[in-house]
């Protein structure tokens, strides 16, 4: 049965990553999360890893493999923002965001692909953002790192598609998290006015799409970009 598979969610200690890990646990999967600090949800194995460090990623994978078994489903979710206008953006503001969001996905996918190739089965889900395709002032670094995941997923689909491995991108829009809750009410109203659905998503609505992509029902879907944005980024 597919639900007994081993899942690793990077950045699974908070926000969308946590909701994804919780959903996999609820559906009966064996779930591990990486976190730089804090713990994953109940029922998960938490391993320490900074996705910018290949050696740390390798050690985290080895620990999960020893305790749970080979990783069959990978959700590359760990990400950071360092928002500022281009003219004020430092080299570090750009490099650190790209190294975490894009480089981190590269490191964890490369490490996971070894076991997936042996098993001739794998589900890779990259968590992007509506901003990656829609654009956002003050987020040149973040948007570039998130749109790059599309080319990554499509190239990987061409490389690994014949081996029973799918790679897809989920692009969430505005989600109800601690971050959006802190926005001034006027700003929240403004954002909601631009979303056809008229509301923010719950993190669980994103998690449902991710778990579906990992399921047998989605075995013939690869290289797709699935927006979970209430229609905000339509046509992108």
UniProtKB/TrEMBL annotation:
What does the UniProt keyword field contain? Answer: Oxidoreductase
- Which biological process annotations from GO are given for this protein? fatty acid elongation
- Gene3D superfamilies the UniProt entry points to: NAD(P)-binding Rossmann-like Domain
SUPFAM superfamilies registered for this protein in UniProt: NAD(P)-binding Rossmann-fold domains
Q: Which Pfam families match?
A: adh_short_C2
Please list the residue ranges annotated as the Ketoreductase domain. 5-178
One GO MF annotation is: oxidoreductase activity, acting on the CH-OH group of donors, NAD or NADP as acceptor
* Tagged with keyword Oxidoreductase: yes
- Annotated PANTHER family: 3-OXOACYL-[ACYL-CARRIER-PROTEIN] REDUCTASE, CHLOROPLASTIC (PTHR42760:SF40), SHORT-CHAIN DEHYDROGENASES/REDUCTASES FAMILY MEMBER (PTHR42760)
Q: Which NCBIfam families match?
A: PRK12826.1-2
Name the protein family: Belongs to the short-chain dehydrogenases/reductases (SDR) family.
Q: What is this protein called?
A: SDR family NAD(P)-dependent oxidoreductase
What is the native source organism of this protein? Microbacterium bovistercoris
Taxonomic lineage of this organism? Answer: Bacteria, Bacillati, Actinomycetota, Actinomycetes, Micrococcales
């Amino acid at each position: 049965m597919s639900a007994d598979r081993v899942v690793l969610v990077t950045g699974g200690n908070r926000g969308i990553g946590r909701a994804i890990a919780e959903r996999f646990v609820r559906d009966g999967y064996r779930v591990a999360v990486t976190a730089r600090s804090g713990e994953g949800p109940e029922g998960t194995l938490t391993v320490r890893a900074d996705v910018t460090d290949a050696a740390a990623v390798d050690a985290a994978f080895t620990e999960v493999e020893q305790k749970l078994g080979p990783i069959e489903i990978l959700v590359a979710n760990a990400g950071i923002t360092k928002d500022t206008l281009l003219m004020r953006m430092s080299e570090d503001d750009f490099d650190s965001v790209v190294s975490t969001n894009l480089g981190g996905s590269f490191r964890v996918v490369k490490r996971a692909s070894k076991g997936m190739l042996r098993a001739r089965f794998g589900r890779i889900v990259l968590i992007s953002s509506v901003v990656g395709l829609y654009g956002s002032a003050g987020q040149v670094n973040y948007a570039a790192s998130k749109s790059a995941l599309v080319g990554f997923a499509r190239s990987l689909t061409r490389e690994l598609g014949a081996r029973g491995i799918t790679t897809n991108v989920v692009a969430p829009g505005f989600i109800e998290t601690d971050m959006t809750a802190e926005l001034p009410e006027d700003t929240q109203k403004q954002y909601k006015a631009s979303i056809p659905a008229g509301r923010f998503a719950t993190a669980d609505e994103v998690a449902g799409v991710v778990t579906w992509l990992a399921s047998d029902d989605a075995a013939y879907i690869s290289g797709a970009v699935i927006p979970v944005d209430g229609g905000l980024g339509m046509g992108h």
